[in-house]
Structure formats: C-alpha cells, structure tokens
C-alpha cells in the first residue's frame, strides 16, 4: 500500500470508529463503543504507517538528489 492509501484508510477508520463510539454512547451499547475505540486506534496506527512510509520515501528521494 502507498503512504497516501494508508493515510486515507487510517482517516476513514478513525472517523468510522468515532461514529461507532458515539452511537454506542447514545444507545448505551458498550460493545459498540469498544469496537469504535478499537477501530479509531487502528486508524491512528494506519495513518502513522503512512507517515513513516512517506518519511522513508522523502529520505530516499533526498539521497538520490545528492548522488
């Protein structure tokens, strides 16, 4: 997966997780709240992976420019 794809999927999971948490709170569904929190954390991790990939790519590009 590209860094952009990871960042987009991460953001999508964060939003979906937040929605699940909100719905879970409103309905009193603790399981849905927990699932939402897990999905939000997964999204944060995906975005971090995307950022790391972008950092590696940027560093490699900088090295190539110096050669």
From TrEMBL:
Q: Where does the record place the CsbD-like domain?
A: 6-58
Q: Which Pfam families match?
A: CsbD
Organism domain of life: Bacteria
Report the sequence similarity comment from the record: Belongs to the UPF0337 (CsbD) family.
Q: What is this protein called?
A: CsbD family protein
Say which species the protein is native to: Methylorubrum rhodesianum
């Amino acid at each position: 997966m590209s860094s952009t794809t990871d960042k987009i999927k991460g953001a999508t999971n964060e939003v979906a997780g937040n929605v699940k948490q909100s719905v879970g709170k409103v309905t009193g569904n603790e399981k849905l709240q927990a699932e939402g929190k897990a999905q939000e954390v997964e999204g944060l991790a995906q975005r971090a992976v995307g950022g790391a990939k972008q950092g590696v790519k940027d560093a490699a590009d900088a090295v190539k420019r110096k050669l």
